[in-house]
Design goal:
Distance between the termini: 68 Å
Largest sheet: 6 strands, antiparallel
CATH class of one domain: Mainly Alpha
Shape: globular
Number of helices: 10
Radius of gyration: 28 Å
CATH topology of one domain: Transferase(Phosphotransferase), domain 1
CATH superfamily of one domain: Transferase(Phosphotransferase) domain 1
CATH architecture of one domain: Orthogonal Bundle
Number of strands: 50
Length: 688
């Protein structure tokens, strides 16, 4: 095809037709040196049938002008979504020609989920769990922008070829813009959405965030059964009766999908974060079966070869001073040759050799040269690396995505990363573009849509456009926001309270900070916590926090200290659990660990004792186990560690010199001066 749009975009082929609404093309951008391929969507603001409903050409032109204005606004939203989220196609351009509108978008190479199922058959449970987890992260971001996708279905999710990540395409908002008249009423009965995947309230023209969760749940059901949910829907109740077509699916995952696809929106998960948390909770309940949340990935290596990474659980294993990886039966899978390794995360593990770091895959192949001075775990698809005392970011193929040039940098959080260059701070996106200019004396990462910045002695919370939301008093210390509130303290950090996102002091600044936690126990000194380590213009430490999250709200309650005693308050500042304990941990899954009169116990949110620990001190229960510390007979300031279960029974002996909480079925421990990993059953993956 030789058609040239806007004297720039050469149409290569028609990808799809959308009835009277438009077409989708594969095109080449002739203005770029590489003649970059892209996707162009042509959208008609008025169909021939609709044109006949207007009584004059003037009315038609008025309608088209109105729709064009709305189209521009919605295109700006698509641009923002693509810029800030790697799993949404980027919008390169939009324009109007001959009373038709065009979107120019990034071409995503890969198969749609529908194509994958048609080629390979139904997907297994682990694969579907992995897809859900990834897409729920995307939806959480989309919904934070107050956007409902409106058309989630297997055809609109592409498994990107380069990293096998699911990419969400074809947002329904633009289609609906074209179907709304000047009076605000629909000009067509056809709304965004697809039968079988569209929630009832969306079909009635009232989409909500839970509508997208319904569509995602219905998509997962299709992947597990191979059937359109419409074929399995009970017309009387609206329920999707799918279990008989996928009896192999665990009851846990079935419960998540059934709740997500309830016919009434009020009965579903209300947020993507809520659904993801439930998926996570159910996944953790399976750890005893050695299951993990991964799915098959195909990653290119050499120019002419590919290798498939399978869902094999690999565990860091140490023998003497060398590390490698074994399976759950302690069979060595990756050679013991490294000085240090980390557990696998997102299909890759960091390794250390001769003081340098890099990444390997699950067959032991080096994805990056082992040359870096530091490497982080992957966060939002990118990892932080340090080379020649400069910082940058790489992707999962080892490609340098953001140049290694920064004096300091932090991992991505809410699609932006905090960086420092030439003594100034700012935030960049995943292309390296400065979203928040690198001009501030200090800056924090984003949390709940806000970041703290400082310039010339003034400090403010800003949003992702750089707009000032809250001005902070000069002598106040401030934490990130959590559950809608931020911790603030006075200039000497002797007292603290809480502010909301308007800057209003909702809980008075009156609670005290002790100088340290229990000496030698499970917690470190309060003055060690620092959120940002840089000094301000007058040399004052700016934002205390390394443990500040401990003082933020967890599950609706925050722990506070008065006169060196601990208790809990709610978001109104009401003392819910008396301030009387020697120490207290944040609530996690409804329980907190506290100490009273040298006795440790777990309490619920009413303050009722659920479990008493006879000897030693226990911290937060993670994956069904909690670290238990007991003082040495020779020195009460030194502790050894083991683990207890939810009944208080010591299931892993107290013998380790140091220990960490469990994460993904493993815990890092120190024994006789050397680190190793143990499983939840107490299996030690190391030999001396």
């Amino acid at each position: 095809m030789s058609l040239l749009l806007k004297q720039r975009y050469q149409i290569v082929e028609v990808l799809s037709e959308a009835g009277g609404f438009g077409q989708t093309f594969l095109a080449k951008d002739t203005d770029t040196p590489s003649r970059r391929k892209c996707v162009i969507k042509k959208l008609r603001p008025i169909t021939e049938t609709e044109r006949k409903q207007f009584d004059s050409e003037t009315a038609i032109l008025k309608h088209i002008k109105f729709v064009q204005e709305r189209f521009h606004r919605e295109a700006a939203i698509l641009e923002r979504l693509g810029d800030f989220c790697d799993q949404i196609p980027k919008l390169y351009a939009y324009f109007a020609e001959n009373q038709e509108f065009y979107l120019v978008q990034e071409l995503i190479d890969g198969l749609t989920l529908k194509q994958k199922l048609q080629r390979e058959g139904t997907l297994d449970e682990n694969t579907v769990r992995g897809l859900l987890w990834s897409l729920l992260n995307v939806l959480e971001y989309v919904h934070q922008q107050n956007i409902v996708h409106r058309d989630i279905k297997p055809d609109n999710i592409i498994l990107r070829q380069r990293d096998n990540e699911p990419v969400l395409i074809d947002f329904g908002i633009v289609k609906e813009v074209l179907r709304v008249g000047v009076d605000g009423n629909p000009t067509s009965s056809v709304m965004a959405g697809t039968p079988g995947y569209t929630a009832p309230e969306q079909a009635a023209g009232r989409p909500v965030f839970a509508s997208d969760l319904y569509s995602l749940g219905a998509t997962a059901i299709y992947l597990l059964t191979g059937k359109n949910p419409q074929q399995m829907t009970n017309l009387a109740t609206g329920d999707i009766a799918w279990r008989q077509y996928a009896p192999q699916v665990s009851s846990n995952l079935a419960a998540v999908l059934n709740k997500a696809t309830e016919s009434h929106a009020r009965d579903r998960y209300q947020t993507a974060a809520e659904m993801r948390q439930k998926l996570h909770d159910y996944q953790q309940s399976l750890y005893g079966q050695e299951t993990i949340l991964t799915f098959e990935k195909t990653i290119p290596f050499a120019e002419s070869s590919e290798i498939t990474i399978i869902s094999l659980r690999l565990i860091p294993y140490r023998k003497g001073d060398k590390w490698g990886f074994c399976d759950s039966n302690k069979k060595i899978v990756i050679e013991l040759k490294y000085d240090e390794t980390s557990p696998f995360s997102e299909g890759l593990a960091s390794v250390e050799l001769n003081g340098a770091y890099g990444y390997i895959d699950k067959v032991g192949r080096e994805i990056t040269p082992i040359k870096y001075e530091y490497v982080s775990s992957f966060s939002e698809g990118l990892a932080l690396v340090k080379l020649n005392d400069k910082w940058g970011f790489i992707d999962k193929t080892g490609r340098e995505i953001i140049p290694i040039k920064y004096d300091d940098a932090h991992s991505f959080s809410e699609v932006l990363a905090h960086v420092k260059l030439n003594g100034k701070h700012g935030l960049i996106d995943k292309t390296g573009r400065e979203v928040i200019p690198i001009k501030y004396d200090y800056a924090s990462s984003f949390s709940e849509g806000l970041a703290l910045v400082g310039l010339k002695g003034k400090r403010s919370f800003i949003d992702k456009t750089g707009r000032e939301i809250i001005r902070i008093k000069y002598d106040y210390y401030v934490s990130p926001f959590r559950e809608g509130l931020a911790f603030v303290g006075n200039d000497k950090l002797s007292e603290h309270g809480y502010i909301d996102k308007t800057g209003r002091e909702v809980i008075p600044i009156k609670y005290k900070h002790p100088h340290s936690y229990r000496a030698g126990g499970l917690f470190s000194a309060i003055h060690d916590y620092m959120f940002i380590e840089d000094d301000d213009a007058v040399g004052q430490k700016i934002i205390p926090i390394a443990h500040a999250l401990d003082f933020l709200f967890h599950e609706g309650l925050a722990r506070v200290n008065l006169n060196y005693n601990w208790g809990y308050i709610d978001k109104t500042g009401r003392e819910v659990i008396p301030i009387k304990y020697g120490y207290a941990t944040p609530f996690d899954k409804g329980l907190a660990s506290v100490e009273l009169n040298h006795k440790c116990s777990y309490i619920d949110k009413t303050g009722q004792e659920i479990l008493s620990i006879e000897h030693g001190y226990a911290d937060t229960i993670k994956e069904g186990l909690a670290r238990l510390g007991k003082p040495l007979a020779s020195c009460e300031l030194l502790y050894n560690y083991g683990y207890i279960n939810k009944t208080g029974r010591e299931v892993i002996p107290v013998k380790y010199n140091h220990a960490y909480s469990f994460s993904e079925g493993l815990a890092r421990v120190l024994l006789n001066g050397k680190y190793g990993f143990i499983g939840r059953d107490g299996t030690e993956y190391f030999e001396d």
